[in-house]
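Researcher: For the annotation table, I need structure tokens for histidine kinase. Please keep the output clean. Sequence:
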Amino acid sequence: MLVLAAGRGRHALLPAATCFLIAAWAAAVALMPEAPLAWPPGGLEVLRNAFWFLLLLVLGRRVGGAQARPLLLRFALAGGTATLLAFATLSAPVAQALTTTAIGSPVVLTRLALVLLVVLLAENLYRNADDGTRWHVVLPCVALGGLAAFDVILYAHAALTHDLSPILADARAVLAAVAAPLLALGAMRDRRWRRNPPVSRQVVFHGATLLVAGAFLLAVGAAGEALRHLGADWARAAEIGLWAGTAMALVVALSARSVRSRLRRSVVDHFFAARYDYRQEWLRCVATLSAPDVAAQLRAIRAIADAADSPAGVLLLREGAEAGFHWAGSWNMPEEPVSLADDHPLILEVRGGTWIVPLSEKDAPELREAFGQLWLAVPLAHHRDGLLGLVLLAPPRAALPLDGEVFDLLRSLGREVAMFLAERRAAERLAEQQQLQDHAQRFAFVAHDVKTVASQLTLLLANAEHNIQDPEFQRDMLLTVRASATRINTLIARLRQPEGAELNTTSIEPLARLRELSARSAHPVQLEHDDRPPLRVSMAAEAFDAAVTHLLANAAEASRPGEPVRLRLQHGQQRVLVEVIDRGCGMTPEFIRDHLFRPLATGKPRGSGIGAWQARELLRRAGGELAVHSRPGEGTTMRMTLPACRDPRNDASFPAPHSAEAALP
């Protein structure tokens, strides 16, 4: 039926033979229920398990192609060995001793090894198949893997209790009847396969762990049986203690990284052509370097140490333009401020970052004295900055042969770590430059304001020689000196505030501030404003005063002596416009575009090039903007636009637009 259902008989011959052997084995067990492990039911069972294994190998070959040959060859050798040993236990002397009451450990061990290999191969085949291929292999893997897993339970129970469970033995026939239709459905499915390697290091690792642990338990069981046959009074207590100690030993062994490393080196690596799963290594490196709440130096060490299975390491880095390589961090090693000169033998031996150096007992004695036993020096080579540093690793948990594959991986990881450290160092320098730039900007603002205050005091002193006896001048002088002192104290407070801190933003009324600034100005100022209710804006009073003062000072310098500067205030809908107008020489469009708002660029003999730039920056921080309208020979209009804040006192300040409002620019 399987041959006819599959269309082409050659694709269904192996599943059909497998189902035939299952039926033959079930019939033999039914005829000889008293000795299910002897010949012929025992032999048919071994042959059945061998065909399960062979069917899964064929499926793995069709799925994985040529890339799966090394892995499948090792599986085939292991399965063939287990099958031969299982057939060897069917010899006449051994078969006579096989009963349900006295089970020989060789029989159980060989059959358990064979079905464990079937489970391992089925799991490996299923886990490594992609979505399209898995549709073809899922039914054989479930059917054969399930039958083999049930046999594992049967033989494990027999090994522990020294008796074959009749219930479990009879249940195998029911399970086989359920699994046979799954094999038939699997044979009817499409036979077009995509070739992907079914290699899974995790599955092989866990499978190998299961095999080792199972063999260890069987050995302990044999030792317990030997103690039981001694017949002494302490034999039973010794057997219980042996099992308890075995459980503790397994827990300790499985939780120890050194044991897992030795298992991977001695068993798992032999199943693969390459020692590393490079996809997993790359993902692990990215995860390590991007781990939060871990110092960058420790991340750099772990990214390389984990690939080499090293439990500790130390990082030496070149610090900027300083000569030599200095200690930058330790992981599970002492923290010692050790430095290596550029001409140190170890630095010369890495050949500019292209050579990984195994360290012997005679190499770098000062490093061994500081950090203990060292095993490997991995250079951190950057494509632009050259050799950034070294990562010194402690000996691995399990012996790791150093070959070209290991060196290539560590060299690539060293370059990746070097890029990570270089980018982090560049980001730190950029942050420092930003802080210096912010401080320089604040200092430039303060210097310009100090210049303005100094100009006011100089003008005051010049007028004091002729008007010191005038009481009105004396009052103006006191007001000017008091305002200058307040301004200087404000500037000092601004310099003392933390980096990034802003001025206290409050709700101010521009009209009131403009009236005060007009009264304090040494140059004549003509204040104009509309009759609409005054609006309030969200801006620090000091910042607003500084912006207007800078623009007034520039307008006064551009105006002829005695000609007033017009200061016009207009209230629009949800905005305030302040215009500083002069009738001076004006500016060209090229000057406005290229020089007006460039810091430290000025065309005045005693100018600083800060005023217009600072005014625009202060307005932008408050959500406003500064626009310039100027023509040579016609003067200049500096237009400040500020949004009105959502203040209850502004609610009455938004009437419907009328003709005068429509004329606003």
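Researcher: And a one-line annotation?
Model: Residues 1-9, 92-104, 190-199, 651-665 have pLDDT under 50 and may be disordered.
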